[in-house]
Design brief:
52% of the residues lie in helices and 0% in strands. The protein has three helices and no strands. The protein is elongated and about 55 Å long.
Length: 75
Amino acid sequence: MKAKDLDRCFDVGEDVTECLDLAKAKRPGHEQKRVNVDFPLWMVESLDREAKRLGIPRQAVIKVLVARHLEKAST
């Protein structure tokens, strides 16, 4: 399908996902890089309590807290 045909289908609200190769889709600026961080035990225990309270993994809590801090620091 040509780009102009895809644009036309999208503009009228048709589902164009079948025309896309989602296996190769990327979100620029959201590539991941693994890092290792050592935390004191009391911090890990606090993170685990918060993760349990929210019903999400510890890693998600860490990402949210770091993202909030960085967002706040950049304003």
